[in-house]
Amino acid sequence: MINAAVTGASGRMGKLLIENIIKxxxxxxxxxxxxxxxxxxxxEVAQVGKLDVPISDVADMAxxxxxxxxxxxxDFTIANATAANAPVVAEAGVxxxxxxxxxxxxxxxxxxxxxxKNNTTAIISPNYSVGVNVFFKILQETAKYxxxxxxxxxxxxxxxxxxxxxxxxxxxxxxxxxxLGGKDFVYGREGLAPREKEIGIHAVRGGDIVGDHTVxxxxxxxxxxxxxxxxxxxxxxxxxxxxxxxxxxxxxxIYTMDDILGF
Length: 263
Ligand SMILES: NC(=O)C1=CN([C@@H]2O[C@H](COP(=O)(O)OP(=O)(O)OC[C@H]3O[C@@H](n4cnc5c(N)ncnc54)[C@H](OP(=O)(O)O)[C@@H]3O)[C@@H](O)[C@H]2O)C=CC1
Ligand SMILES: O=C(O)C1=N[C@H](C(=O)O)C[C@H](O)C1
Fold this sequence. Notes:
Blueprint: E1 2-7, H1 12-23, E2 27-33, H2 42-45, E3 55-56, H3 61-67, E4 72-75, H4 79-91, E5 95-98, H5 105-117, E6 121-124, H6 130-145, E7 150-157, H7 167-179, E8 184-187, E9 198-205, E10 212-218, E11 223-229, H8 234-246, E12 253-255, H9 257-261
Residues 7-8, 10-14, 33-36, 58, 76-78, 81, 99-102, 125-128, 163, 167, 236 line the site of NADPH dihydro-nicotinamide-adenine-dinucleotide phosphate.
């Protein structure tokens, strides 16, 4: 049985991760962390019934992980929180499934260094849905054929999202840039904006949009739009919990969803 802890247990994703953990075989909730609802039952906060797992303060993370015999922490919080908590998790010899987005290059290196230094394992992905990871592959292929076309990425999310552009939009831009040997990124456009050989990245925030990503390849007299739309956060939560099961048999190191999906 895999013992999984959830960090960000009171959040939109945290609650759904707990719901998915209790539904899946071979994995159980061993601990939960958040800034809010400390001491409350994580199952009751997630509205899935009492689980006898209290939400703990992140300040007690090292002790709680040890006492709860946690094997893996699933972290969907905010960049600075993940950057602070990941070294604590790695030093405790516990694996990590990271869904948080919006890392600076320094935060990303700090997390990866802690995992490597402690010989543990991490999966880091801006999007745990199967569809988005197929979408990345389609973008790679399309970019090869339409390398001369103008490329713009438009993403839309709910009005409570804390980072922009989304991690998925940034990964889409990286995938295309890597395929085409390097592109500049331009964020939004305003005023006179002559088109160079860059990828334009645009973020929209409104209402309860779960997550839309469109990549536009525009030529002189035609265009292709490749679009992924998430209908529910379950697309992300189920992928993250499957990843937490997968990690139990992985060699130490850093992985992405490509490894889990066998791409
Ligand atoms: N990879 C993927 O597939 C997906 C990634 N995401 C990413 O996951 C992250 C969370 O998204 P979402 O659930 O919507 O956000 P929420 O704001 O709903 O949830 C985040 C939770 O983390 C808590 N938190 C903040 N700081 C800490 C800390 N230091 N220690 C412990 N908990 C903390 C927040 O508390 P408080 O509210 O009090 O600050 C909140 O309860 C975002 O970065 C988002 O982009 C989201 C969906 C899919
Ligand atoms: O914050 C969200 O909601 C989401 N965040 C991820 C991102 O930034 O790419 C993934 C998904 O689009 C939902």
